[in-house]
UniProtKB/TrEMBL annotation:
Protein name (database record): Sugar ABC transporter substrate-binding protein
Tagged with keyword Iron-sulfur: no
Family membership: Belongs to the bacterial solute-binding protein 1 family.
Positions in coiled-coil regions: none
Species in which this protein is naturally found: Microlunatus aurantiacus
Entry keyword set: Signal, Transport
Alphabetized InterPro entries for the sequence: SBP, TAT_signal
Region (Disordered): 26-47
Protein backbone atom coordinates (compact mmCIF):
# COMPACT_ATOMS: atom_id res chain seq x y z
CA UNK A 1 0.00 0.00 0.00
CA UNK A 2 1.35 3.44 -0.96
CA UNK A 3 1.17 5.73 2.05
CA UNK A 4 1.56 9.44 1.31
CA UNK A 5 4.39 10.81 3.38
CA UNK A 6 2.24 13.67 4.61
CA UNK A 7 0.27 11.05 6.55
CA UNK A 8 3.27 10.70 8.83
CA UNK A 9 3.82 14.41 9.46
CA UNK A 10 6.07 14.47 12.46
CA UNK A 11 4.70 11.14 13.65
CA UNK A 12 7.74 8.98 12.90
CA UNK A 13 8.82 9.43 16.48
CA UNK A 14 5.44 8.17 17.69
CA UNK A 15 5.62 4.81 15.97
CA UNK A 16 8.13 2.02 15.84
CA UNK A 17 7.92 1.84 12.06
CA UNK A 18 9.37 4.23 9.52
CA UNK A 19 8.78 4.81 5.83
CA UNK A 20 11.68 3.76 3.63
CA UNK A 21 12.83 6.26 1.03
CA UNK A 22 14.90 6.36 -2.11
CA UNK A 23 18.47 7.61 -2.18
CA UNK A 24 19.20 11.34 -1.96
CA UNK A 25 19.41 13.51 -5.04
CA UNK A 26 23.18 13.84 -5.32
CA UNK A 27 24.51 17.11 -6.71
CA UNK A 28 21.15 18.82 -7.12
CA UNK A 29 21.51 21.68 -4.65
CA UNK A 30 18.11 23.26 -5.10
CA UNK A 31 19.59 26.59 -6.15
CA UNK A 32 17.93 28.21 -9.16
CA UNK A 33 19.89 27.39 -12.31
CA UNK A 34 21.19 30.29 -14.43
CA UNK A 35 18.25 30.11 -16.81
CA UNK A 36 15.70 30.07 -14.00
CA UNK A 37 17.41 33.01 -12.31
CA UNK A 38 17.61 34.99 -15.51
CA UNK A 39 13.93 34.45 -16.21
CA UNK A 40 13.09 36.38 -13.07
CA UNK A 41 14.53 39.56 -14.58
CA UNK A 42 15.59 42.77 -12.84
CA UNK A 43 17.17 42.77 -9.43
CA UNK A 44 14.62 40.66 -7.62
CA UNK A 45 16.08 38.29 -4.99
CA UNK A 46 16.57 34.70 -6.13
CA UNK A 47 15.32 32.16 -3.58
CA UNK A 48 15.23 28.36 -3.45
CA UNK A 49 12.46 26.56 -1.56
CA UNK A 50 12.58 22.85 -0.67
CA UNK A 51 9.74 20.39 -0.12
CA UNK A 52 9.75 16.66 0.46
CA UNK A 53 7.88 14.52 -2.07
CA UNK A 54 4.22 14.43 -1.06
CA UNK A 55 2.26 11.34 -2.04
CA UNK A 56 -0.92 13.19 -2.99
CA UNK A 57 -1.37 14.19 -6.63
CA UNK A 58 -1.19 17.89 -7.36
CA UNK A 59 0.89 19.11 -4.43
CA UNK A 60 4.02 19.81 -6.47
CA UNK A 61 2.10 21.85 -9.03
CA UNK A 62 0.34 23.72 -6.24
CA UNK A 63 3.48 24.83 -4.40
CA UNK A 64 5.07 25.91 -7.68
CA UNK A 65 1.94 27.92 -8.42
CA UNK A 66 2.15 29.61 -5.02
CA UNK A 67 5.80 30.50 -5.61
CA UNK A 68 5.09 31.88 -9.07
CA UNK A 69 2.43 34.19 -7.64
CA UNK A 70 4.99 35.95 -5.43
CA UNK A 71 6.14 39.15 -7.09
CA UNK A 72 8.86 40.37 -4.71
CA UNK A 73 11.34 37.57 -5.50
CA UNK A 74 11.93 34.72 -7.92
CA UNK A 75 11.30 31.55 -5.95
CA UNK A 76 12.43 28.23 -7.43
CA UNK A 77 10.83 25.15 -5.86
CA UNK A 78 12.88 21.96 -5.49
CA UNK A 79 10.87 18.75 -5.10
CA UNK A 80 12.89 16.14 -3.16
CA UNK A 81 12.11 12.42 -3.53
CA UNK A 82 13.82 10.02 -1.16
CA UNK A 83 15.20 10.54 2.33
CA UNK A 84 14.30 14.19 2.67
CA UNK A 85 15.31 14.61 6.31
CA UNK A 86 18.78 13.26 5.60
CA UNK A 87 19.09 15.39 2.49
CA UNK A 88 18.22 18.59 4.36
CA UNK A 89 20.53 17.81 7.29
CA UNK A 90 23.40 17.17 4.89
CA UNK A 91 22.72 20.26 2.80
CA UNK A 92 22.76 22.53 5.86
CA UNK A 93 26.38 21.53 6.43
CA UNK A 94 27.42 22.79 3.00
CA UNK A 95 27.50 26.12 1.17
CA UNK A 96 24.60 25.01 -1.03
CA UNK A 97 21.82 25.47 1.49
CA UNK A 98 18.21 26.02 0.46
CA UNK A 99 16.92 29.47 1.36
CA UNK A 100 13.63 28.06 2.67
CA UNK A 101 12.82 24.47 3.58
CA UNK A 102 9.98 22.61 5.24
CA UNK A 103 10.59 20.24 8.15
CA UNK A 104 8.37 18.05 10.31
CA UNK A 105 7.37 19.90 13.50
CA UNK A 106 9.99 22.51 12.74
CA UNK A 107 13.78 22.29 12.61
CA UNK A 108 15.56 19.80 14.85
CA UNK A 109 17.32 20.87 18.02
CA UNK A 110 20.64 20.19 16.28
CA UNK A 111 19.74 22.68 13.54
CA UNK A 112 18.68 25.28 16.09
CA UNK A 113 21.74 24.88 18.32
CA UNK A 114 24.07 25.00 15.32
CA UNK A 115 22.58 28.32 14.23
CA UNK A 116 21.50 26.88 10.88
CA UNK A 117 18.00 28.37 11.01
CA UNK A 118 16.63 31.86 11.60
CA UNK A 119 14.52 32.87 14.60
CA UNK A 120 11.07 33.73 13.17
CA UNK A 121 9.47 34.98 16.39
CA UNK A 122 9.35 38.61 15.27
CA UNK A 123 8.22 37.57 11.78
CA UNK A 124 5.07 35.93 13.09
CA UNK A 125 4.46 38.80 15.52
CA UNK A 126 0.82 39.43 16.36
CA UNK A 127 -0.24 36.64 13.99
CA UNK A 128 0.95 34.14 16.59
CA UNK A 129 -2.54 34.01 18.08
CA UNK A 130 -3.97 32.94 14.70
CA UNK A 131 -2.21 29.57 14.82
CA UNK A 132 -3.13 26.50 16.83
CA UNK A 133 -1.15 26.82 20.06
CA UNK A 134 -0.02 23.16 20.27
CA UNK A 135 1.08 23.19 16.62
CA UNK A 136 3.08 26.38 17.06
CA UNK A 137 4.57 25.08 20.32
CA UNK A 138 6.03 22.11 18.43
CA UNK A 139 8.03 24.57 16.34
CA UNK A 140 9.24 26.55 19.33
CA UNK A 141 12.39 26.15 21.40
CA UNK A 142 13.11 28.24 24.51
CA UNK A 143 10.31 30.65 23.58
CA UNK A 144 11.64 31.26 20.07
CA UNK A 145 9.70 30.19 16.97
CA UNK A 146 11.82 28.59 14.24
CA UNK A 147 9.26 27.74 11.55
CA UNK A 148 5.79 28.76 10.41
CA UNK A 149 3.23 25.90 10.37
CA UNK A 150 1.88 24.88 6.95
CA UNK A 151 -0.67 22.12 7.57
CA UNK A 152 -1.41 19.43 10.15
CA UNK A 153 -2.17 15.70 10.27
CA UNK A 154 -3.23 13.74 13.33
CA UNK A 155 -4.37 10.40 14.73
CA UNK A 156 -7.54 9.50 16.63
CA UNK A 157 -9.88 6.69 17.63
CA UNK A 158 -12.68 5.66 15.24
CA UNK A 159 -15.71 3.72 16.56
CA UNK A 160 -18.79 2.16 14.99
CA UNK A 161 -21.85 3.81 16.50
CA UNK A 162 -24.25 0.97 15.71
CA UNK A 163 -21.99 -1.69 17.19
CA UNK A 164 -21.43 0.14 20.45
CA UNK A 165 -25.13 1.03 20.73
CA UNK A 166 -26.20 -2.57 20.18
CA UNK A 167 -23.86 -3.69 22.98
CA UNK A 168 -25.07 -0.90 25.27
CA UNK A 169 -21.57 0.58 25.41
CA UNK A 170 -20.77 4.29 25.57
CA UNK A 171 -17.88 5.70 23.51
CA UNK A 172 -14.90 5.28 25.86
CA UNK A 173 -13.21 8.33 27.35
CA UNK A 174 -10.94 6.47 29.80
CA UNK A 175 -8.54 3.58 29.35
CA UNK A 176 -10.55 1.44 31.76
CA UNK A 177 -13.66 2.12 29.69
CA UNK A 178 -11.81 1.34 26.44
CA UNK A 179 -10.62 -2.02 27.76
CA UNK A 180 -14.11 -2.83 29.02
CA UNK A 181 -15.83 -1.67 25.83
CA UNK A 182 -13.44 -3.61 23.59
CA UNK A 183 -14.19 -6.80 25.49
CA UNK A 184 -17.96 -6.26 25.44
CA UNK A 185 -18.28 -5.58 21.71
CA UNK A 186 -15.81 -8.23 20.54
CA UNK A 187 -17.29 -11.27 18.84
CA UNK A 188 -15.94 -14.27 16.98
CA UNK A 189 -16.13 -12.22 13.78
CA UNK A 190 -15.23 -8.74 14.98
CA UNK A 191 -12.48 -7.49 17.28
CA UNK A 192 -13.16 -4.85 19.87
CA UNK A 193 -10.23 -2.46 19.31
CA UNK A 194 -7.39 -2.47 16.79
CA UNK A 195 -4.23 -0.33 16.83
CA UNK A 196 -1.87 -2.28 14.65
CA UNK A 197 -0.63 -5.77 13.94
CA UNK A 198 1.85 -5.42 16.80
CA UNK A 199 -1.01 -4.94 19.24
CA UNK A 200 -0.64 -1.15 19.14
CA UNK A 201 2.74 -0.98 20.84
CA UNK A 202 4.42 0.91 18.01
CA UNK A 203 1.86 3.63 17.50
CA UNK A 204 0.51 4.01 21.05
CA UNK A 205 3.57 3.78 23.29
CA UNK A 206 4.08 7.54 23.56
CA UNK A 207 0.34 8.20 23.73
CA UNK A 208 0.42 6.45 27.10
CA UNK A 209 2.60 9.25 28.48
CA UNK A 210 0.34 12.10 27.41
CA UNK A 211 -2.90 10.27 28.23
CA UNK A 212 -1.60 9.69 31.77
CA UNK A 213 -1.26 13.46 32.17
CA UNK A 214 2.52 13.34 31.99
CA UNK A 215 5.18 14.79 29.68
CA UNK A 216 7.95 13.07 27.76
CA UNK A 217 10.66 15.30 29.25
CA UNK A 218 10.64 16.88 32.73
CA UNK A 219 10.50 20.63 33.29
CA UNK A 220 14.22 20.78 34.16
CA UNK A 221 15.06 19.12 30.84
CA UNK A 222 17.27 16.60 32.58
CA UNK A 223 15.27 13.41 32.10
CA UNK A 224 11.84 11.92 31.43
CA UNK A 225 8.69 13.37 32.91
CA UNK A 226 6.84 10.13 33.63
CA UNK A 227 9.12 8.26 36.06
CA UNK A 228 6.34 8.22 38.65
CA UNK A 229 3.22 6.32 39.69
CA UNK A 230 1.18 7.83 36.85
CA UNK A 231 3.76 6.67 34.31
CA UNK A 232 3.98 3.18 35.77
CA UNK A 233 0.20 3.00 35.87
CA UNK A 234 -0.05 3.93 32.20
CA UNK A 235 2.09 0.98 31.14
CA UNK A 236 0.16 -1.32 33.45
CA UNK A 237 -3.15 -0.08 32.00
CA UNK A 238 -1.92 -0.77 28.47
CA UNK A 239 -0.86 -4.26 29.52
CA UNK A 240 -4.41 -4.90 30.70
CA UNK A 241 -5.78 -3.78 27.33
CA UNK A 242 -3.14 -5.85 25.52
CA UNK A 243 -4.05 -8.96 27.47
CA UNK A 244 -7.79 -8.51 27.14
CA UNK A 245 -9.89 -10.51 24.75
CA UNK A 246 -11.09 -7.31 23.13
CA UNK A 247 -7.83 -6.23 21.50
CA UNK A 248 -7.50 -7.35 17.88
CA UNK A 249 -3.82 -8.06 17.19
CA UNK A 250 -3.99 -9.16 13.57
CA UNK A 251 -5.99 -7.64 10.73
CA UNK A 252 -6.00 -7.43 6.94
CA UNK A 253 -4.01 -4.17 7.05
CA UNK A 254 -2.16 -2.13 9.66
CA UNK A 255 -3.46 0.71 11.83
CA UNK A 256 -2.83 3.40 9.19
CA UNK A 257 -5.29 1.85 6.71
CA UNK A 258 -9.07 2.06 6.97
CA UNK A 259 -9.61 -1.53 5.79
CA UNK A 260 -9.94 -3.30 9.16
CA UNK A 261 -12.51 -0.74 10.32
CA UNK A 262 -14.65 -0.47 7.18
CA UNK A 263 -14.52 -4.25 6.62
CA UNK A 264 -16.03 -4.81 10.08
CA UNK A 265 -12.95 -6.58 11.38
CA UNK A 266 -13.00 -4.29 14.41
CA UNK A 267 -15.55 -2.13 16.19
CA UNK A 268 -12.96 0.49 17.12
CA UNK A 269 -9.67 1.41 15.50
CA UNK A 270 -6.84 3.82 16.11
CA UNK A 271 -6.04 5.56 12.84
CA UNK A 272 -5.33 8.81 11.06
CA UNK A 273 -7.32 11.72 9.73
CA UNK A 274 -6.32 10.60 6.22
CA UNK A 275 -8.68 7.62 6.62
CA UNK A 276 -11.74 9.85 7.04
CA UNK A 277 -12.82 10.04 3.36
CA UNK A 278 -12.69 6.24 2.93
CA UNK A 279 -14.55 5.63 6.15
CA UNK A 280 -17.22 8.21 5.34
CA UNK A 281 -17.71 6.78 1.84
CA UNK A 282 -18.24 3.25 3.14
CA UNK A 283 -19.95 3.77 6.50
CA UNK A 284 -21.84 7.01 6.02
CA UNK A 285 -22.60 8.43 9.45
CA UNK A 286 -22.28 5.12 11.30
CA UNK A 287 -19.06 6.10 13.02
CA UNK A 288 -17.69 8.60 15.47
CA UNK A 289 -14.25 9.83 16.48
CA UNK A 290 -12.57 10.26 19.86
CA UNK A 291 -9.24 11.35 21.31
CA UNK A 292 -7.15 8.69 23.00
CA UNK A 293 -8.78 7.99 26.39
CA UNK A 294 -7.44 9.34 29.68
CA UNK A 295 -5.39 7.01 31.88
CA UNK A 296 -5.55 7.16 35.68
CA UNK A 297 -6.63 9.87 38.08
CA UNK A 298 -4.25 12.45 36.58
CA UNK A 299 -5.09 11.47 33.02
CA UNK A 300 -6.38 13.49 30.10
CA UNK A 301 -7.65 12.73 26.63
CA UNK A 302 -5.03 13.41 23.97
CA UNK A 303 -4.16 13.09 20.29
CA UNK A 304 -0.78 13.13 18.50
CA UNK A 305 -0.22 15.40 15.55
CA UNK A 306 2.49 16.33 13.09
CA UNK A 307 2.86 19.55 11.14
CA UNK A 308 5.39 20.55 8.53
CA UNK A 309 6.67 24.09 9.00
CA UNK A 310 8.57 26.48 6.75
CA UNK A 311 12.04 27.39 8.05
CA UNK A 312 14.58 29.95 6.80
CA UNK A 313 18.27 29.07 6.65
CA UNK A 314 20.70 31.44 8.34
CA UNK A 315 23.33 31.06 5.61
CA UNK A 316 21.01 31.48 2.64
CA UNK A 317 21.69 34.17 0.06
CA UNK A 318 19.07 36.58 1.40
CA UNK A 319 17.48 35.57 4.73
CA UNK A 320 15.43 38.77 4.89
CA UNK A 321 13.93 38.14 1.45
CA UNK A 322 13.30 34.50 2.44
CA UNK A 323 11.52 35.61 5.62
CA UNK A 324 9.35 37.99 3.61
CA UNK A 325 8.29 35.16 1.30
CA UNK A 326 7.51 32.82 4.19
CA UNK A 327 5.38 35.53 5.81
CA UNK A 328 3.58 36.20 2.54
CA UNK A 329 2.79 32.53 1.90
CA UNK A 330 2.23 30.92 5.28
CA UNK A 331 0.96 33.87 7.32
CA UNK A 332 -0.80 36.17 4.86
CA UNK A 333 -2.09 34.04 1.95
CA UNK A 334 -4.96 32.21 3.59
CA UNK A 335 -6.49 31.16 0.26
CA UNK A 336 -3.33 29.20 -0.53
CA UNK A 337 -3.19 27.81 3.02
CA UNK A 338 -6.71 26.40 2.70
CA UNK A 339 -5.93 25.02 -0.76
CA UNK A 340 -2.78 23.29 0.52
CA UNK A 341 -4.67 21.56 3.36
CA UNK A 342 -7.93 20.83 1.60
CA UNK A 343 -7.33 20.15 -2.09
CA UNK A 344 -4.73 17.36 -1.88
CA UNK A 345 -5.83 14.80 0.66
CA UNK A 346 -7.48 15.62 3.97
CA UNK A 347 -5.53 17.84 6.37
CA UNK A 348 -6.09 20.53 8.99
CA UNK A 349 -5.09 24.14 8.32
CA UNK A 350 -2.61 25.42 10.88
CA UNK A 351 -4.98 28.27 11.71
CA UNK A 352 -8.18 27.12 13.47
CA UNK A 353 -10.14 29.96 11.88
CA UNK A 354 -9.57 28.37 8.45
CA UNK A 355 -11.08 24.99 9.37
CA UNK A 356 -14.55 26.13 8.34
CA UNK A 357 -13.20 26.99 4.87
CA UNK A 358 -11.72 23.50 4.38
CA UNK A 359 -14.88 21.71 3.28
CA UNK A 360 -13.54 18.19 3.94
CA UNK A 361 -13.32 18.90 7.67
CA UNK A 362 -15.65 21.86 8.06
CA UNK A 363 -18.23 19.81 9.95
CA UNK A 364 -18.83 16.42 11.51
CA UNK A 365 -15.92 14.14 12.49
CA UNK A 366 -13.41 16.26 10.57
CA UNK A 367 -14.26 19.36 12.55
CA UNK A 368 -14.10 17.32 15.75
CA UNK A 369 -10.63 16.10 14.78
CA UNK A 370 -9.44 19.66 14.19
CA UNK A 371 -10.76 20.58 17.62
CA UNK A 372 -8.91 17.67 19.18
CA UNK A 373 -5.59 18.98 17.83
CA UNK A 374 -6.20 22.53 18.95
CA UNK A 375 -7.26 21.56 22.48
CA UNK A 376 -5.69 18.14 23.12
CA UNK A 377 -2.79 17.92 20.68
CA UNK A 378 0.74 16.72 21.48
CA UNK A 379 3.92 16.36 19.42
CA UNK A 380 7.27 14.84 20.41
CA UNK A 381 9.56 16.98 22.53
CA UNK A 382 12.68 18.09 20.65
CA UNK A 383 14.77 16.31 23.30
CA UNK A 384 12.96 13.01 22.67
CA UNK A 385 15.61 11.25 20.60
CA UNK A 386 15.40 8.04 18.61
CA UNK A 387 17.32 6.22 21.35
CA UNK A 388 14.77 7.28 23.97
CA UNK A 389 11.94 6.32 21.63
CA UNK A 390 13.41 2.85 21.14
CA UNK A 391 13.81 2.44 24.89
CA UNK A 392 10.15 3.36 25.36
CA UNK A 393 9.02 0.83 22.77
CA UNK A 394 11.09 -1.85 24.53
CA UNK A 395 9.60 -0.93 27.91
CA UNK A 396 6.01 -1.12 26.70
CA UNK A 397 6.75 -4.36 24.87
CA UNK A 398 8.23 -5.98 27.97
CA UNK A 399 5.37 -4.90 30.22
CA UNK A 400 2.66 -5.94 27.75
CA UNK A 401 4.12 -9.20 26.44
CA UNK A 402 6.40 -10.42 29.24
CA UNK A 403 4.56 -9.07 32.28
CA UNK A 404 7.65 -7.12 33.29
CA UNK A 405 7.45 -4.65 36.17
CA UNK A 406 6.38 -1.19 34.86
CA UNK A 407 8.51 0.73 37.36
CA UNK A 408 11.62 -1.22 36.39
CA UNK A 409 10.97 -0.74 32.68
CA UNK A 410 10.30 2.99 33.00
CA UNK A 411 13.52 3.21 35.00
CA UNK A 412 15.39 1.81 31.99
CA UNK A 413 13.86 4.52 29.79
CA UNK A 414 14.87 7.12 32.36
CA UNK A 415 18.48 5.93 32.33
CA UNK A 416 18.68 6.18 28.54
CA UNK A 417 17.03 9.60 28.53
CA UNK A 418 19.37 11.04 31.16
CA UNK A 419 22.40 10.03 29.10
CA UNK A 420 20.86 11.22 25.84
CA UNK A 421 19.89 14.64 27.17
CA UNK A 422 23.31 15.14 28.76
CA UNK A 423 24.91 14.24 25.43
CA UNK A 424 22.75 16.71 23.52
CA UNK A 425 23.39 19.52 25.95
Amino acid sequence: MDIPRRRFLGLAGLAAASVAGLSACGSNTGRPDPEASASGGGTKPQLSQWYHEYGEDGVEDAVKRYAAAYEAATVTVKWNPGDYDKLVSSALLTANVPDIFEYGNGPTLDMIKAGQVVDLTELIGDAKSQFSAPVLAAMTWEDKIYSIPQTTDMQMLYYRKSVLEKAGVQPPTTMVALTDAASKVATDDMGGFFAGNDGGIGVLNQMLIWAAGQEQINTDQTGIGFDNDAGYGALAAFAQLYGSGGLLKSASADWFAADPFVNSETAMQWGGLWMLPDITAKLGDDFGVLPFPAIGSAGRQAVPFGSYGAAVTAKGRDPEAAKAFVKWLWIDQEEFQVDFSNSYGTHIPAKPSLVAKADKIASGPGAEAAGFVDKLGFAPNKLWTQAISQAMVAAVTNVATKKADPETEVGKVAAVATKEIARIK
